[in-house]
Amino acid sequence: MLFSELGLSEQLLKAVAEQGYETPTPIQAQAIPVILQGRDVLAGAQTGTGKTAGFTLPLLQLLQGQPVPQKPRPVRVLILTPTRELAMQVYESVRTYGKHLPFFAEAIFGGVSINPQIQKIQRGTDIVVATPGRLLDLIQQQHLDLSKVEHFVLDEADRMLDMGFIRDIRRIIALLPSKRQNLLFSATYAPEISALAEQILNDPVEIAVAKRNAAADTVSQLVYGINREYKRELLSYLIGNGHWQQVLVFVRTKHGADRLAKQLIKDGIRCAALHGDKSQGARVRALEEFKNGSITALIATDIAARGLDIDQLPHVVNFDLPQVAEDYVHRIGRTGRAGAEGQAISLVDPEEAYLLAAIEKLLKRQIPRVDDTGYPNVSLAVTNSKPQPKPAQPNKPARRPQNGRPGEAAKRAPNSRKPRPQAAKPR
């Protein structure tokens, strides 16, 4: 099938062609005709399958078929996203595909000054892409009216629920007109998603282009069993020895992201941290430097698990396993996108074995282990779903040199200056 067969306008087809696309992805091929019919949709697809264009293109087409309202233009399309990064990604998609159409779109999210957003909204806009918190702020201050919304999109609905937005979502839905088209997109399904779909969708068409809660086949997965104190050293070795140019590293906490970034910089690896405590300017700068190759490693919390759209990202590393198994699928979905091959590596401490067991239960298969790490062997076996107590650790064993593997540096003299590791080659 070609995009020209989906019933899209000449202006939209021109914008699609300018991006170099000729054939739609499976989610686009299935969702676009249904959305154009005005039906409600419950869609499940892996990340990186093109679902953003799957709802952006038909919504622009539907707006194009209606008379242009008088100024100030009311909000006719509301797209709700869980994070600033995803809001910006969707907003850029709307601008890219709608560049030849006379519509206005605005992105609304926290972490930046609210005044410029107020000024843009007051001038009128057809499409609003927003995070729940800032959207409610503007509504409470009476700067935004949702009574004319005709199309409502809940993107990454499962992540919305994970982040505790269910009350905000219900408050926003209560402000929308009862007659509207609803589109609910989710990378994974859980009972809570089904319950939410029953509440807001009217006789929806269900679209699923892949197994639920499944990782893409283009992503090769490996597990390194290793004690926590050696994780950073192994990560530096993998980056340097493998000559990696771009790797997204997931950690559990904001403090852990900052600490690991500082350690990798000392190892000679160009990197930056990305998490919720960073200003919007710092987050945008870190993403741009990562995309253009100025930095090699981006150390991120799960706030980056959704919304990062990086072409040909080759490597994702789980420095810490996620507490929720479904988040593993989101994380590794940052690589292996649009049919490209990618690699996902997890560094697993014995205390995280129960988290690995939950992930493998979700995937319905065991992830291959790398046994020869050059470090003391660890067991990742668990007998139940609860964290296992960490056994008493003897003195760290001497690290053995092994053909350039990590740990080959000679034992340092007391109080001597720590030499810079040579794991990564500077450009």
Automatic annotation (TrEMBL):
Residues 218-381 form the Helicase C-terminal domain. Residues 32-207 form the Helicase ATP-binding domain. The keyword Hydrolase applies. Residues 414-427 have a biased composition (Basic residues). InterPro entries: DEAD/DEAH_box_helicase_dom, DEAD/DEAH_RhlB, DEAD_box_RNA_helicase, Helicase_ATP-bd, Helicase_C-like, P-loop_NTPase, RNA-helicase_DEAD-box_CS, RNA_helicase_DEAD_Q_motif. One of its GO terms (biological process) is response to temperature stimulus. The keyword Cytoplasm applies. Its EC number is 3.6.4.13. GO terms for cellular component: cytosol. A motif (Q motif) lies at residues 1-29. It is an enzyme of class 3 (hydrolase). It catalyses: ATP + H2O = ADP + phosphate + H(+). Keywords: ATP-binding, Cytoplasm, Helicase, Hydrolase, Nucleotide-binding. Residues 1-29 form the DEAD-box RNA helicase Q domain. Belongs to the DEAD box helicase family. PANTHER family: ATP-DEPENDENT RNA HELICASE RHLE, ATP-DEPENDENT RNA HELICASE RHLE-RELATED. This is DEAD-box ATP-dependent RNA helicase RhpA. It comes from Methylomonas denitrificans.
